[in-house]
């Protein structure tokens, strides 16, 4: 016989999921400080509702906080809250060439994402980084599945043409297929 699992306290949830929430927010905002602000704001909105959320059962925590983060993010860019544009910060390269390549790729992907309009960026983050379906993405963004499909197609077309995401291999072949599995 299985016993019901006790709902995590708010503090336990934040301790366990805080880093994942920050990564999600960073992918949406493209900036570490804004990501921290977004997570803090979302958790501040979720905290008063925690008892109700925990009564809904396992899995509802992430869904609720993700929804609050998305609606907060959308509200911010609709109000032009993000009027500042940070300068690019290049990560410190490691001694290992593989680490340097990975850091360069990460920087290039983030820079390419930052060039997308906010709505397209949100769709790409949800579809390919959060691995949501088109229907889940549409529900999260409060739009139609058709809008998700068209925004995804436009965003992927921009990313495929981005000079940041193309490469020349050691034989001189173009890396047009190097879209990170986004197509």
Task: Walk me through what this model shows.
This protein has helices at 10-29, 32-46, 50-55, 60-78, 97-114, 118-129, 134-141, 145-161. The protein is mostly helical and 183 residues long. It folds into two domains: 7-86, Rna Polymerase Sigma Factor, Chain: A; 91-183, Winged helix-like DNA-binding domain superfamily/Winged helix DNA-binding domain (Arc Repressor Mutant, subunit A). The longest helix has 20 residues, at 10-29. The radius of gyration is 19 Å and the shape is globular.
Short synopsis of the structure:
63% of the residues lie in helices and 0% in strands. By secondary structure, it is mainly α. The protein has two domains: 80 residues, Rna Polymerase Sigma Factor, Chain: A; 93 residues, Winged helix-like DNA-binding domain superfamily/Winged helix DNA-binding domain (Arc Repressor Mutant, subunit A).
Give a quick set of tags describing it.
single chain; 183 residues; mainly alpha; Rna Polymerase Sigma Factor, Chain: A; disordered C terminus
CATH topology type of the largest domain = Arc Repressor Mutant, subunit A
**Coarse structural class:** mainly alpha
Q: For the report, how would you describe the main beta sheet?
A: none
Q: Mean pLDDT, as a whole number?
A: 79
Topology:
Elements: H1 10-29, H2 32-46, H3 50-55, H4 60-78, H5 97-114, H6 118-129, H7 134-141, H8 145-161
């Amino acid at each position: 016989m299985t016993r019901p699992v006790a709902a995590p306290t708010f503090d336990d949830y934040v301790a366990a999921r805080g880093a994942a929430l920050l990564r999600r927010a960073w992918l949406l905002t493209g900036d570490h400080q804004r990501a921290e602000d977004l997570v803090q704001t979302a958790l501040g909105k979720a905290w008063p509702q925690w008892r109700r959320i925990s009564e809904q059962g396992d899995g509802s925590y992430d869904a609720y906080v993700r929804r609050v983060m998305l609606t907060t993010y959308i509200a911010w860019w609709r109000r032009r809250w993000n009027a500042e544009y940070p300068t690019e910060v290049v990560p410190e390269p490691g001694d290992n060439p593989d680490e340097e390549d990975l850091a360069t790729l990460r920087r290039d992907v983030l820079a390419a994402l930052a060039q997308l309009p906010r709505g397209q960026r949100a769709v790409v983050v949800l579809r390919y980084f959060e691995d949501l379906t088109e229907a889940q993405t549409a529900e999260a963004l409060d739009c139609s599945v058709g809008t998700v499909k068209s925004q995804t197609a436009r965003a992927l077309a921009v990313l495929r043409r981005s000079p940041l995401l193309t490469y020349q291999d050691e034989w001189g072949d173009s890396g047009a297929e190097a879209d990170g599995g986004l197509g």
